[in-house]
Design brief:
Number of strands: 17
Strand content: over 45%
Largest sheet: 11 strands, mixed
Number of helices: 2
Order of helices and strands: EEEEEEEEEEEEEEEEHEH
Radius of gyration: 15 Å
Structural class: mainly beta
Oligomer: single chain
Amino acid sequence: NMWIEHFRVLGAGCESTHSGIHLDGGAGNSITKSFVTGCSGNGIMLDSAFAPLSHCQVDAEVHDSFRGLSLSGKSQEKMDAIYIAGTYTKNREAGVMVSNATNVILGDCDVSDNEKYGVLLQGKSGARGCIISSRCKIANNGIDIAELHGSINNWVFGATSPEASENHSINHRTIKEYSK
């Protein structure tokens, strides 16, 4: 178990691509009340390249990086049961990317004003069984929510942006229904 709290990272990777905070593998890890900005790579990256990663939480504020938060699971090592809260805004590719991970919950998030994607669910194995809570604000991104590659069975609950409430009268829907 690793607990990172009140950590600040400013401008990581000025000479090459680096993440501000990077955790690989483990269970019960927590990153809370942390602030990351200006990274050439991911503001915060959790991955399972060398060991499975599960039962973790991230609640941070990340701006002006390539991706705000990257969950990068590998097909050989499981990534499962991650809770995300916080603010992920004004990043170059995505506010939050979930790749090859299962049972990720986005609750109490502000994912807005990112250039390409707000929330990007992707990967060969895909993002599966992920939930985007009604407590999330996801707005003003190039594409607010995208589900690509092997991603299936992901859900949006409640209206996450003004466009969603105008186009959908039900409270929950799959990502595919949200994207219509």
